[in-house]
Amino acid sequence: MSVVDDVVSVRLDDEKNALIILDQTLLPGETKYLTLTTQQQIWDAIYRLQVRGAPAIGIAAAYGVYLAAKQSSATEWAALHADFTEARKFLASARPTAVNLFWALDRMQRCLDACEGQPVSRCKAALLAEAHAIREEDEQVCKAIGENALALLRPGMGLLTHCNAGTIATAKYGTALAPIYLGQDRGYGFRVFADETRPLLQGARLTAWELQQAGVDVTLLCDDMCSIVMKNGWVDACLVGCDRVAANGDTANKIGTSTLSIVASRYGVPFYVCAPTSTIDMNCTSGKDIQIELRQDSEISTLWYKTPQAPAGIKAYNPAFDVTDNEFITAIITEKGVVYPPFEQGLAEIMK
Ligand code: MRU
């Protein structure tokens, strides 16, 4: 599992007052780490998807607000709180859909709130410990999701995944890719199909790269090929990650996930969503409450091409995510266990 052990997508260099991230926009061609020291740099890295994947965004933001507090010249709690809150609001505006961003920032906020009246040095130490805890817990959570998912799979299965819910999208292991890595270690011999994931190609650039590095049998597909491989009987299960799960099980994930779920349902292929409980948002009653990020037209029309592949000035619609209706989801696999329909009941139980 060398890619899982060797690649760290987000970490803190406390001595340098810096967040170190793997620049995911340069993969697979270049493995380059960026040193981010300002709030603007961290915001930009999240917005540009240099750090991406719901859990990784949350970890980056947690370290980001810690750095804001550390760099604050405040001499007492109230002033530190004001500086922190400004940074929290700023980083929260980077991307709207992945709830882990808000979950991690809220958790950091509660940590500082609980320090009221304490010397600023102690407040900063508490924030550092909380940010580290968020990172470390994510690693454990992903491993547990991997074990829970692996228990539903059998050696030799064909698996289809969309976007990148791998080790670089998390602290370690990933969510949807965690069972594949654990299975690889245990000789399961999975055959994995990775959707390229238009328009930003997280599947082609990141998932195909990660799995190939790990020695997994991986085949790249264009997004519109999911039907033929399922009809051919090559896919035994779909495994995807998520950015936000509503209380009724509706799930926002990378654009195209909903299409995949509908095709899977047509061919009777189980469709599993791998979700840390930090991605479950009980405040959203259904998928209708989830804000979908809209990104620039250029990501579709020009970004990947030497010459534009669409007429200049063409309008484009570029939602980064879609919502998979709960009826197409076989199960939601969390670190606390596997939730089956009816999801309202199961998720409420697990989120108690
Ligand atoms: O726009 P991205 O690349 O951040 O979208 C990421 C996804 O859709 C992932 O599937 C999701 O965040 C889960 S990552 C474990």
Automatic annotation (TrEMBL):
Pathway: Amino-acid biosynthesis; L-methionine biosynthesis via salvage pathway; L-methionine from S-methyl-5-thio-alpha-D-ribose 1-phosphate: step 1/6. Its EC number is 5.3.1.23. Keywords: Amino-acid biosynthesis, Isomerase, Methionine biosynthesis. GO terms for molecular function: S-methyl-5-thioribose-1-phosphate isomerase activity. SUPFAM superfamilies: NagB/RpiA/CoA transferase-like. Substrate binds at R52, G53, A54, R95, Q202, N253, K254. The keyword Isomerase applies. It catalyses: 5-(methylsulfanyl)-alpha-D-ribose 1-phosphate = 5-(methylsulfanyl)-D-ribulose 1-phosphate. This is Methylthioribose-1-phosphate isomerase. The gene is mtnA.
